[in-house]
Design brief:
Shape: globular
Helix content: 10-25%
Distance between the termini: 49 Å
CATH topology: Lipocalin
Structural class: alpha+beta
Oligomer: single chain
CATH architecture: Beta Barrel
CATH class: Mainly Beta
Number of strands: 8
Length: 145
Amino acid sequence: MKRIVVLTTLVIMSSIAVLAQNRANDIIGVWETEDKDARMEIFKCGDKYCGKLLWGKGIVEEDGVTSKKDVNNPDPKLRSRDVVGITYLSGLTFDDDEYEDGKVYNSDDGKTYKCYVWLKNGSLYLRGYLGMPVLGQTTKWNSVK
């Protein structure tokens, strides 16, 4: 009887872990801002989640194709790299329906901010902040299918 209880408990715990992991992976994919002026791809990087810029009005030249350079980066060696394709969202860990402990890089000012992300009604919300979350800004992104 003990063996059945232990086995049942292990099966239930494994099922819960699999469901939580599947929920955590809901963030993976391509996302676009509400205004359709930027796209990013979120992917798994190790045991965390990261995001890279695919396109954006503010990160490409007037031709709409050529990437701007990362001229405001505090590291002089990185100022000649293309902004399109850089990993600008990093370190997100899934915990209880929220992705936390992340960092988001802003190529406009060359600064990295703390951030967290959550999903609600099929949309992704990214809040970047300096110091305390109340001193931040939230952007809404929609899934690109």
